Amino acid sequence: MAKVLSANLGYPRIGEKREWKKALEGFWNHKLTETEFLETTKQLRLSYLQKQKDRGVDLIPVGDFSFYDHVLDTAVLFGLIPERFKQHDDAVTLDTYFSIARGNQNAEASEMTKWFNTNYHYIVPEISNQTKPRLTTNRLLDLFNEAKEAFGITTKPVIVGPITLLKLSKGYDATHFDALLRSLVPLYSEVFTQLAAAGAEWIQVDEPILVRTTNNDDLNIFKQVYQQIKAAVPGLKILLQTYFESVDCYADLIKLPVDGFGLDFIDGAAGNLAALEQFGFPKDKVLAAGLVDGRNIWKTNLADTLSQAEKLLTFTGGPEKLWITPSCSLLHVPVTIENETALDPLLKDALAFADQKLSEIVTLTKGLNEGRASVQPALDAARQSIQHLQQSEQRNNRAVEAELADLDKELPKRPKDYAARQKIQSEVFHLPLLPTTTIGSFPQTAEVRQARRKWRKGEWTDAQYNDFIKEETEKWIRIQEEIGLDVLVHGEFERNDMVEYFGEKLDGFAFTRFGWVQSYGSRCVKPPLIYGDVAWQTAITVAESAFAQSLTQSPVKGMLTGPVTIFNWSFVRNDISQADVFNQIALALKKEIQALEEAGIRMIQVDEPALREGLPLKEEKKAAYLHRSVYAFRLATSFVRNDTQIHTHMCYSEFDEIIDAIDALDTDVISIEAARSHGEIIATFEKFAYKKGIGLGVYDIHSPRIPSVEEMQSYAERALQVLDPHIFWINPDCGLKTRKPEETIPALKHMVVAAQNVRAELHHTIPNN
Ligand SMILES: Nc1nc2c(c(=O)[nH]1)N[C@@H](CNc1ccc(C(=O)N[C@@H](CCC(=O)N[C@@H](CCC(=O)N[C@@H](CCC(=O)O)C(=O)O)C(=O)O)C(=O)O)cc1)CN2
Ligand SMILES: [Zn+2]
């Protein structure tokens, strides 16, 4: 009988207890041999397939698993390996693979950047005009066969499509795009041919680039590419998969010569539904409907979603032409709710992580195939759980609602403009030209993490833990003084994560124990859950900052995470507007900043590394988001005294599109990542003629490599060709929590010498300094 199918688009790699992370780091630290590493990761991979099979998913993906990143996997598959990592014999060893991602003492890592508007980071493929793509090892074939041998299942391999891959790559001129694409397409066809020969029926080709603004020329490229592939591999069906927004140019898109389209009906719901209504859907193709949120952790309202699915069914050529899927890969949500024993049952009951989402998909599919009555109890249960949370006290905090209602429409403003503040502040701080500073965190060593674990488990008292944090802070204040940094930080030793830590102290947040999500490589984050109204209770950072400041004559920056970043790096309730949540967090931070000022802290950094990440993918939505962001940031920061210096920090970003918003934050100093992208962003600030305090990172902290004095000096010199030395700061790209002390200390020493050298050069050109 013709049936609707359930399909997954991608499963989390990290494991219920981050077994994958531990295997990777064990291998890097030589605690696991290569054989042990390969065996461990194989067992993990098989267990993920098993789980999906057990839950009853019809179409299970392979190729979603990775040793680091799936974009890097795709680049390596096609031999897109930067020259500096190439081996004589063209072999791509594990060592080559990890060097591209992490760098080594001889070569800088490839750039890493945000995957669309998520907190996942991919390795940017480096391609030159001369690059000759070639097929290395067909890993998809190996993975397909592995699943077949282990479970006898025919899986659906997943690959990043050629156009998305090329558009996300760097290093070639736009004029070479066509030629590169022409050389890639036969290689994709070859991979697909081998898969078809091995028995694959479908391949999922991810082309999320289609949700960015697309024009007819772009679509023509798609048409040519997929025509060619289909002609070369007629036996394999292609699902062209999109996610994160609605597709542009729907009417032409659905004419592409593929066998199915995957559309996002969560983040792209409005646009995709309207297009479907207007243009219908081709009867001979599959509609893979992303109806279960792959990016948030709330239970699906199954009854409503089932109605939506029934509606979609009327557009397809029959039930066998509809698949129910998550809205995107489940890479972006934690693995399972089952191990969360400490959560408030009211909340827990309203949550669904990856495994639970797969069950939801299976339930919806069953409801379509066997009728609503067959799943009625599940529909009722989901509705009830959602309602209970909605009516809870935490979601209805009257005091917070009153404060929000009181807000002015006008952008909050500092009492004096930047020029006036700069004058006042220069008299207070007496900083040298090109002041040196760091971004906030110092190494979170095993010792620091262990101390926190002991304290959490109750093995250490509060006093023991606090003493430990104080000792660590004092140690690093002395280290910073010795290195000769001008503006110090307390080191953030008390923080597990820059977002989770704040969430733990604010009302309206909840935490999981194992709710980890991959951020980049082996690094994971455990986003807090903003499930209620956010409110400030008690000082969060004041004791640590005041203590650090009491140890030294140098200024120590207070260190907070900004409202937009707290929002973007949490799983957020979706029953109130983004602006309301931004402003709730901003009002809470404002109280914290007031407390810091009262404690005599004169420099306060409010980090917004995720501001760029949250930028909507559609042009028409961008301005409103940026306005909300600037409003919330200024609500938190702009009331301060003229002699309180407000800093912010951003990383992993392409700043071009947000430079006006950055300027509108009206901070006294901003520090920005620049070294990891090999200095590229300097041009942005030249174009804009940025006039406020700014530090462009001279040290790529994501690599274990220790940069030389010359290298950092040359980054600073390049920046100073476009920026006024009177506004320029010298700092690393980001915080140093992921680095070891033995990497951090020499690198910062080099940085300070680099600053001294550049200052000396400037003294020849600028008198009176
Ligand atoms: N939320 C967020 N997103 C971000 C960033 C960020 O800092 N935060 N930075 C950018 C880059 N992304 C990053 C993401 C994660 C990490 C990172 O260091 N993550 C750590 C986990 C951090 C953490 O929460 N640590 C906990 C410890 C968690 C833990 O592993 N506990 C172990 C015990 C550890 C031990 O004994 O050694 C256990 O419970 O079993 C703590 O310090 O308390 C990791 O994966 O290793 C760094 C950068 C962009 N996005
Ligand atoms: Zn950063």
From TrEMBL:
The keyword Lyase does not apply. Its cofactor is Zn(2+). GO terms for molecular function: 5-methyltetrahydropteroyltriglutamate-homocysteine S-methyltransferase activity. Its EC number is 2.1.1.14. Keywords: Amino-acid biosynthesis, Metal-binding, Methionine biosynthesis, Methyltransferase, Repeat, Transferase, Zinc. 5-methyltetrahydropteroyltri-L-glutamate binds at residues 18-21, 114, 523-524, 569, 613. It catalyses: 5-methyltetrahydropteroyltri-L-glutamate + L-homocysteine = tetrahydropteroyltri-L-glutamate + L-methionine. L-methionine binds at residues 439-441, 492, 607. The keyword RNA-binding does not apply. It is an enzyme of class 2 (transferase). Binds 1 zinc ion per subunit. One of its GO terms (biological process) is methylation. Zn(2+) binds at residues 649, 651, 673, 734. Pathway: Amino-acid biosynthesis; L-methionine biosynthesis via de novo pathway; L-methionine from L-homocysteine (MetE route): step 1/1. Pfam families: Meth_synt_1, Meth_synt_2. InterPro entries: Cbl-indep_Met_Synth_N, Cobalamin-indep_Met_synthase, Met_Synth_C/arc, UROD/MetE-like_sf. Catalyzes the transfer of a methyl group from 5-methyltetrahydrofolate to homocysteine resulting in methionine formation. Belongs to the vitamin-B12 independent methionine synthase family. This is 5-methyltetrahydropteroyltriglutamate--homocysteine methyltransferase. It comes from Sporolactobacillus spathodeae. The gene is metE.
